[in-house]
Design goal:
The protein has 3 domains: about 10-40 and about 175-270, 3-Layer(aba) Sandwich (Rossmann fold); about 40-170, Rossmann fold; about 275-360, Winged helix-like DNA-binding domain superfamily/Winged helix DNA-binding domain (Arc Repressor Mutant, subunit A, Orthogonal Bundle), CATH 1.10.10. The two termini are about 25 Å apart. The chain has helices spanning about 20-30, 50-60, 70-85, 85-95, 105-110, 125-135, 150-160, 180-190, 200-215, 220-225, 235-245, 255-270, 300-310, 320-325, 330-345, and strands at about 10-15, 30-35, 40, 65, 95-100, 115-120, 140-145, 165-170, 170-175, 195-200, 230-235, 275, 280-285, 290, 295, 315-320, 350-355, 360. It is α/β, with parallel strands linked by helices. Helix 3 crosses helix 4. Helices cover about 45% and strands about 20% of the residues. Strand 14 (about 290) and strand 15 (about 295) form a beta hairpin. The protein contains 15 helices and 18 strands.
Amino acid sequence: MTAGPLSGYTVAVTAVRRADELAAMLSRRGAHVLRAPALRLVPLADDGGLFAATRVLVERPPTYVVATTGMGFRGWLEAAEAWGIGPALLSRLRTATLVTRGPKATGAVRAAGLTESYSPASESSTELLAHLRRRGVAGRRVAVQLHGRTGGEFVDGLRAAGADVVELPVYQWLPPTDLAPLDALLSAVVAGGVDAVTFTSAAAVSSVLARARARRLLAPLVDRCRTGTVVGCVGPVTAAELTGLGVATVQPDRYRLGALVRQLTAALAARTEVIEVAGGPLSVRGHGVVVDGDLRAVPPAGMALLRAMCRQPGAVVPRDRLLAALPGRCDDHALDVAVGRLRAALGAPGLIETVVKRGYRLAAR
């Protein structure tokens, strides 16, 4: 198999929205994608909280309306239509000053026949808050279409400036109906079988952590994410709960799936070991190696042995040290079998040399 930049790595996708798109981007780069939806989305038309907030805005129109996501804004209008108050809501929106957080929200606003007055080039909520505070929000009603569970610092900043904030929780997330994929993901991460995990919402992070806590896996999960598994988040809001647990995350400069994939690719590439061996470079990845530009899948025991030998290329690694590197309790026979399978997986038996009565070594240049 010709290797891509993510070949040999297992990357988990926890998203519900745009999960297919994210998985396809990762797969095109060669990743083995493990899909485990962390959430399920409640239809907006069934959301009583959003209905109540929308009725408030129809009866007492806002001065400002903040659209943060394209999908959320469109979904809100569609839900209002289903409730029979769509025209009334649009009428109120036409008299309000609309601001948007980015191009997708701007596109949704314009598609509805509305016009935004401001959208920060940085797509930053901080810059958007500063703009509204400069305009003056004290005593003004500000409707905020949320893009997470709560408005966080953005809403707190508006209230501190004296605004009457109406929060619009356009996404209501619940745990997935089928927990089996999420449980499989947690077990795989804890066991070291996942090289990277991606998160595209704060709600997904909370769901994964809550499930880990329920299964008494939170401590080993957090430990693995601190020391082994790369964690990719679309931004600081998504990463906040993980940051609070001491987990470092990879984040793109801008909220874009493509940018997240590029950052994740760079982070994994930085961890890739390239060893100069007899015949050329050997690229050691998460669950495989690249030899002569081709990916060779290697079983877990073989990867453990290979990594032990890569620490000192060309040096003899004693049998007792290799036995200690193998998962589980093993004997000399199990070691010899694992080495044989590693040689077969590499497709170049000469790369692993036997040093009689001592151990094995990687045939480095």
